[in-house]
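User: Just a sanity check before I run the rest of the batch. Below are the structure tokens for the first item. I only need the designed sequence back.
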């Protein structure tokens, strides 16, 4: 439990937390964040990559469902499209899930 006494806050274990110290630290964090704004403003949203993509490039999202028959359908559709490589997002949540079967 906190008990306010003038310019300090005393906790139940009798340690004192001066409110001006908290405000000083908070102001320091705010000033630090404001100082970083110009650097963030100069970052472009454009991708500067040395990799060149062909004009017929297309991204395909591959997913599956809880029904294993869906896996066969997805693989067959990818073969019909004659795709040689695909990228599938796989995260820590995917372990033991539907995406692991593919």
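Assistant: Here's the designed sequence for the first item:
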């Amino acid at each position: 439990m906190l008990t306010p006494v003038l310019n300090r806050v005393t906790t139940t274990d009798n340690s004192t937390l001066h409110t001006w110290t908290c405000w000083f630290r908070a102001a320091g964090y705010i000033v630090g964040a404001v100082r970083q704004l110009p650097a963030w403003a100069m970052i472009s949203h454009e991708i500067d990559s040395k990799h060149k993509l062909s004009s017929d490039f297309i991204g395909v999202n591959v997913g599956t469902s809880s029904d294993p028959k869906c896996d066969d359908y997805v693989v067959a559709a990818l073969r019909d499209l004659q795709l040689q490589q695909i990228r599938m997002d796989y995260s820590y949540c995917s372990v033991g899930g539907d995406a692991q079967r593919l």
